[in-house]
């Protein structure tokens, strides 16, 4: 399989992007750094905004959701908006507010299950901590991102000698009693002190000034290429940082567009999107209203703008796995490295309809990339994403698409190198279309 050098470079950049983003807060920080380096200007929701045609801006809500946009040079009521949405969060294990427990001399950290991870894949991995921590100050508190590069934590498997039918029955964990992560030996210390000390040391503060945290257990193993032609990537959080990276790459490559281009990356998709920064919240609608307001659009022209807009909801798709052919709808196989996947569900678990699918096909044709169509097995429940939520909220014609991937919600997912390049090309074309 021939991988063009430019496509290889895009995939290498994807792995760099993911490895820099072990939590939703880090993902937003990684986006912010790239946006600032490309001349985007950070806006604050508490300020009055003044936006000018050609201007490049971004705004962050809650530290873990970000919307970046370029103001088009044509009247918005005549062109509409070009939107791409994705999500910054991934399923996994989150450290509890008072996590540390001394279990017969071993310190372990209590976790909550965030979203729907494949829990068995978290066993025997070199896990560590990443997220945000609030530290007490004289004025109140300050927020710090924290990340440990070395492995601090582990979920050790039970030996097969004590779990004889694991290969027949599958690896199962009781979420309360069997998921806490081993941090170390108590060695005469209080459990809470053992937990706080490394974080305090990393931040250069006193352990007792650590007030609150939102911390992920993340996999320290870096992303890698695999396959006989290195035609696949493996990494954590491909769902959905691969879509964020593709959309961001497309936006950064966009210069002086006719229509305003918006990339919105939301937290909390994996838990239903119901939050201030989630896709169900007001974030996207607020930013769009302010863009329209700054352009001087009245209520009538705002509706005209929305009616002329197009929204691509980008989230990863299920790739056909030859070892499990019975899991797939036989006429709707999505193959790795065969192009972006249009996802359709009659029950509106995806926002795609015949018109928006046709429009996305035309975008792919214009970009010179293949595309595929996916439908879930009729006898299996279908997943969902931010597409239907934002389509309902904004009333914008929408399509749900994604790059095909294996092992969705495993701590180590994989996908195709070519597909990532195809997705960037399709999105770049869509923003200019
Ligand atoms: Zn997803």
Written overview of the protein:
By secondary structure, the chain is α/β, with parallel strands linked by helices. It has 2 domains: 5-90 and 236-432, Aminopeptidase (3-Layer(aba) Sandwich); 92-219, Aminopeptidase i, Domain 2, CATH 2.30.250. The chain contains 11 helices and 20 strands. The chain has helices at 5-19, 24-37, 76-79, 166-169, 191-203, 238-252, 283-294, 299-307, 354-367, 386-394, 417-432, and strands spanning 41-43, 56-61, 65-70, 81-87, 92-103, 106-114, 127-136, 141-147, 181-185, 210-219, 224-226, 232-235, 260-266, 310-314, 317-318, 341-343, 372-374, 398-402, 404-406, 413-416. The strands form 3 sheets. It has a 9-stranded mixed sheet with strand order 1-2-3-13-4-14-18-16-17, sandwiched between helices. The radius of gyration is 22 Å and the shape is globular. The mean pLDDT is 97. Bound molecules: zinc ion (ZN). Zinc ion binds next to α6. Zinc ion (ZN) is lined by residues 87, 239-240, 269, 315-316, 385.
Report the C-alpha radius of gyration, rounded: 22 Å
Total E-strand runs? 20
CATH architecture label of the largest domain: 3-Layer(aba) Sandwich
Largest sheet: 9 strands, mixed
List descriptors:
433 residues, alpha/beta, Aminopeptidase, Aminopeptidase i, Domain 2, 2 domains, six-stranded antiparallel beta sheet, 11 helices, binds zinc ion
